[in-house]
Write a structure and sequence with these properties.
By secondary structure, the protein is mainly beta. The chain has helices at 2-17, 85-88, 289-306; strands spanning 19-20, 26-29, 32-38, 44-50, 53-60, 78-80, 102-103, 112-117, 123-129, 149-155, 161-169, 174-183, 186-187, 206-214, 217-227, 234-238, 260-266, 273-279. The strands form four sheets. It has a five-stranded antiparallel β-sheet with strand order 1-6-5-4-3. A five-stranded antiparallel β-sheet has the order 2-10-9-8-7, with no helix packed on it. Strands 11, 12, 13 and 16 form a four-stranded antiparallel β-sheet that branches. It is globular and about 70 Å long. It starts with a helix and ends in a 9-residue tail after the last helix. 39% of the residues are buried.
């Protein structure tokens, strides 16, 4: 009877878990002690504890990313949250999983937990990141806002790239940041999004901006997130005062420009999280020739990055 109960439970897990991943890289949230194994069959096994229980997640079936297209969906993993029962109907597959992954020798990774090089030369990695932090420098006030997502990726070759630059906007009164998200030289963008910039297809990506030592206080704070635009992959953001968003605590939020900035994006397809870090700028001084020249040069660069359909303000 105990075996029958175990098989019934595993079957229920398999029905939920042996499927295409709903969010291609997110394995779980607030995972404790995650480990990564990869075998010679192109499968990865992620093991950890969550909600006080051991978890084994088997992942396979995707690498890298497609360039944006409306002809098909982006690549994504197949995931078995029952640790192999969903795929093989075999009890204990996770415990017999033979790790063949070698030490990692790939590019430096943001938010890295662990990574390795598979027998076929491809790379797998686990990364841990707080994507859901509230905007405008606020401290999380719900548990969901503070979770640490565990992301799994599988790729060959170069990583996606975030380009970003800082200048000024609106008669130079406000600090400004702009850039572009690309992969293998091609823009990263989707084809559908909400009115607030949330992607509605498997190609769209937001970039998440953190500010350091700003009016919000010392250290890193989440400033905002915004869409990599179609078709250029460009993005732009001005630092202004903000009224609270719907569901946020009352009170106007100050301008969040800081000493430094950090941008994080989920790579397209099943490529890794990538980031960019750079310095802020001082307030604009119209009598400073370096400021004037910087603004002219970066306005020209922003036009180039955004292309003829650019949606960002240039003044």
């Amino acid at each position: 009877m105990r075996l029958l109960s175990l098989l019934t439970a595993l079957l229920a897990l398999a029905l939920l878990g042996a499927c295409r991943a709903a969010a291609s890289e997110i394995v779980d949230r607030d995972a404790i002690g995650p480990t990564l194994k990869v075998n010679t069959k192109g499968e990865a096994l992620v093991s950890y504890r969550a909600a006080g229980k051991p978890k084994h997640v088997l992942v396979w079936g995707a690498v890298n990313a497609l360039a944006p297209t409306s002809a098909r969906a982006q690549v994504k993993f197949k995931v078995d949250y029952a640790g192999g029962w969903g795929k093989y109907r075999k009890v204990g597959y996770a415990t017999t999983f033979k790790n063949a992954c070698r030490p990692y020798d790939g590019p430096k990774l943001a938010w890295a937990v662990t990574a390795c090089k598979a027998p076929d030369g491809s790379y797998w990695a686990l990364q841990r990141w707080q994507r859901a932090l509230p905007n405008l420098g606020l401290t999380p006030w719900t548990p969901a806002q503070g979770v640490w997502e565990l992301h799994l990726s599988h790729w060959t070759g170069p990583l996606p790239v975030i380009e970003a630059y800082t200048d000024w906007i609106y008669s130079k009164h406000f600090h400004h940041l702009f850039g572009r998200l690309s992969y293998l030289g091609e823009p990263v963008h989707g084809f559908k999004s909400t009115s607030t910039g949330a992607p509605l297809d498997s190609f769209g990506r937001n970039v998440y901006l953190d500010t350091f030592n700003s009016a919000y206080g010392a250290g890193w704070k989440r400033e905002n997130s915004f869409l990599a635009q179609n078709p250029s992959g460009a993005f732009c953001y001005g630092f202004y005062t903000h009224q609270p968003y719907a569901g946020y605590p009352a009170g106007e939020r100050p301008m969040g420009h800081g000493e430094r900035y950090r941008i994080t994006a989920i790579g397209p397809g099943v490529t890794p999280l990538v980031d960019w870090k750079g310095a802020g700028v001082p307030d604009f001084d119209k009598d400073n020739p370096e400021h004037v020249a910087r603004e002219l040069d970066l306005n020209a660069l922003q036009r180039e990055l955004a292309g003829p359909g650019g949606q960002c303000v240039l003044n």
